Amino acid sequence: MTDIRIAQDTTALAEMAAETIQTLADDAIQARGSFTIALSGGSTPKALFILLASQYHDTIDWNRVFIFWGDERCVPPDHADSNYRMARETLLDHVNLPTDNVFRLKGELPPPEAAEDYERVLHSFFGDELPRLDLILLGMGDDGHTASLFPHTEALKETQRWVVPNYVSAKETWRLTLTALVINNAANVMFLVAGTEKAERLKQVLQGAYQPETLPSQLVKPTNGNLIWGVDQTAAALL
Ligand code: 6PG
């Protein structure tokens, strides 16, 4: 089921996302004693993370929350581009979350090693079954990428591995990413997309022809889960 939620502005988008996370966390913790979430990177989720750290500081049972990432840049954890660093500074350092509950992608390792390391981390946490996270947060680039699944890159073709290194020639850089296999096995996937610059691509992704090589965000179709598109009015202007 695809659920498109149009928020007035980025503040309302963060509020919608935070409320959704509160509900999903409560449900998962009540049902299974834990809540597993993969964070997205980039700039859009910052407002959400700041909100979670402040207004949701005492309402979410952070002790029972387990943090993963959908992707990471191949940089050390203290690098300005690190998705881990952004999440640590806006959220993780401000809530009662045990450090053992945080599983970061080790961008400081050579990409193939880092991907293998994270695949081992996922196996040790979820076992040998395909991981089914309670929630995977995603963003969408203005080129239609999501996580680090960029147009016309090798990672789009992966059908076996859970985590892969992915060379992004458009950025002349390596990235680490969960594959569509893991993303589509999540119980819930929530995109957060904001800004006028995303409007044209969002229309193509949601209403245009299916062309995932060019629009990797179209690969995201949870096989047995909910798909939420949280978008602000500017990004939704052409829908
Ligand atoms: C990353 C993200 C990436 C991001 C999009 C949107 O590592 O950059 O995981 O997929 O979500 O590029 O980024 P913005 O939110 O900055 O527009």
Can you summarize this structure?
The protein is an alpha/beta fold.
Brief descriptors of the model:
binds 6-phosphogluconic acid; alpha/beta; 9 strands; three-stranded antiparallel beta sheet; single chain; Rossmann fold; 239 residues
* CATH architecture grouping: 3-Layer(aba) Sandwich
Mean pLDDT: 98
Q: In terms of structural class, how would the helical and strand content be classed?
A: alpha/beta
Which residues form runs of ≥5 with pLDDT under 50?
none
Topology pattern, helix = H, strand = E: EHEHEEHHEEEHEHE
Level-1 CATH class name: Alpha Beta
Radius of gyration: 16 Å
Q: Report the count of strand segments.
A: 9
Question: What is CATH's topology name?
Answer: Rossmann fold
Question: How many individual helices?
Answer: 6
Compute the separation of the termini in Å: 18 Å
Residue share in helices? 25-40%
Biggest sheet details: 6 strands, parallel
- Give the amount of beta strand, in percent: 15-25%
